[in-house]
Amino acid sequence: MIADNQEAMDVDTDGASLSKRPPQRSTSVPFQPPRNLAVGYVYSSEMTAHFNPRGHQEAPERITRIWQAIVDEKYNMKMQWLPIRPVTKAEALLVHSQSLWDLVEAYQYMSEQQIVDSEVYYEQLSLYVMPGTTRAARLSCGGVIEACLAVARGRLRKVFAICRPPGHHAEPDQSMGFCFFNNVAVATRVVQQLTQLKRILILDWDVHHGNGTQRAFNDDPSVLYISLHRYEGGTFYPCGEFGGMTSCGEGSGLGFSVNIPWPEKGMGDADYIHAFQRIVMPIAMEFAPELVIISAGFDAALGDELGECKVSPAGYAHMTHMLSGLAGGKLVVALEGGYNLDATMRSALAVTKVILGEAPDPLPPMHASETATETVYLVAKEQSKYWKNIDTKSCEPRQEIDSISFSIPEVLQAHRAHYLYKNYKMMQVPLLGFLQSPFAGQVICTPDLFENKTLVVLAHEFGNLRLELESAMTCDLNLERSYLLDFTKELMRWINEEGYALLDVNLYPKPFASVAQNTKRTSNKKNSERYDDTTALLTYLWDNYIHLSGAQKIVFIGHGPACQPLMNLIDARFNSITRTVKAVVQVVGYSKVPLTPKKDDFRSWYAKCSCVLLPANHHILQPEATYSKKKHGVLCPIEELQPVRIVMKGLPVIQAFLKAQLAIPLS
């Protein structure tokens, strides 16, 4: 909380800010008396005090050029100037650590020799520092706070915060990526504390993922963070998996982080508008924010050498126009990146025109690229777990000619069904209701399902090439999942030799089938997982076939994306499952290891009968990871780096484990 005895603001009964010791305000812009205007701006030339004498992309001209363009067009005469002031310590600590605050404060006292000595260290963090850094960083953060408070309190409808240095890379404990304080994150927390507005959308269109902003709110359902950024399999700055499409938040914030990661450079207006229409706006409207903040980096603009994308000023204007329709028009635009001075200036000017009420310049006829439509489709599949407004089918990148063609997954699934019938006389299991359309023909069993005393249930997503390739970050069709087919062949042969019954469940829905999303995330369910159609299918099979089969010893084997639905089934039918299920094998590869529910009896049982296969270099096995046998089950590292080969190399481990578990006498 912002305490009364801090230098920060107090709050009166009307929510207006008071200050016992007002922080020093910038005087670089002449004072203007209040005018009857709905749009404002924040700007101060004092933020140019942070600069690199040898030159740098994050230069003072980034804001001076924008300001000069606004003045030249006389837009400043239509906007209310908001006095800028430094962020206070109490405000900064709402997001950042004490150590980060102390470090930024110390920059103003650095000698020239200290700056030289520390240069290599700060270059590794993509930073440069100097005595002027402290004042500029505090003003930049304080300026965004004042902009957001002015809108949140109803003084203005929209504000453009022309501030630098940027902020969205700054994490709670670490400044990085040209950023010192996370301006938008701190402003969001201040607004939530000092006003009645609690539900806030942060839309980040900077070409880089805002790792610091997502980190600040990763477990917070009151803040929806959406980022469109160049990702390239996690190799584009800030690098790593945090900006990937499956990074959706954690805990109660699961589903409130939305990443749209472009896999290559060159994305343009059509691609961004397509993502807005299919992902951003549907989710934003379902969230219904009370305030919208744009982390407005202009480094995806055409001509920016760092971002290498092709968004035009009109493209930025149209995105701003769409966002202006949310939250009753309450919108703050906060400058982030943008390193081509001309492109940044033109883009910022186009955004300014829109927040002043002008219509965006028209865009020519266009269509999204194949890369963009595929990316948006994959994001839609991921986000449909959490948001009802996402229509995955409408995002499917199919052409009209596809109605007379077969997809590769369909061909693979048909071949597999034929192979299993020919060799093991396995038959289709009939399904009813909404499960029939997406999963018809994908559940098959041996003829002795209701007679055999030992039953193996194999759940997988065979045919899902997007998840079965060597890496989720690449799409190398030369590595199509023939390995998985070989693994199942060997497993079928072994099961047949042992005399067990088999129920084979393909959880990958038929391509382009209409899958009912009738069990979405609920806001009051903390750590909610995906209780969707895949879990519904497994539960249906348990209730109508497996539980009634008469088998006294049952084995569950999950592969890849099917591991979590299998865990959901065990949780949903725990009492009946523990009577007959003697072993659970999870072949997770590099995927997230499913967590057991926080139930002592569940975790005790799972620790005794689980075997989780994963590569020896899986992140959960690293020294800094917090592995728990109760939470994750018994981990079995396999010395194999390629996920597609883990199932093959781990087959002897699976066989030995199952024999041992099935040899345990019935209780």
TrEMBL record:
Domain Arb2-like span(s) in chain numbering: 410-636
Histone deacetylase domain mapped to chain residues: 56-354
Top-level EC class as recorded in UniProt: hydrolase
UniProt subcellular location: Nucleus
Region (Disordered): 1-32
Family annotation (InterPro entries): Arb2-like_domain, HDACs, His_deacetylse_dom, His_deacetylse_dom_sf, Ureohydrolase_dom_sf
UniProt-listed GO biological process terms: epigenetic regulation of gene expression
Gene3D superfamilies found in the cross-reference section: Histone deacetylase domain
Any GO CC annotation of this UniProt entry: histone deacetylase complex
Superkingdom field: Eukaryota
Similarity comment: family membership: Belongs to the histone deacetylase family. HD type 2 subfamily.
Name of this chain's protein: histone deacetylase
Species per Swiss-Prot/TrEMBL record: Lentinula guzmanii
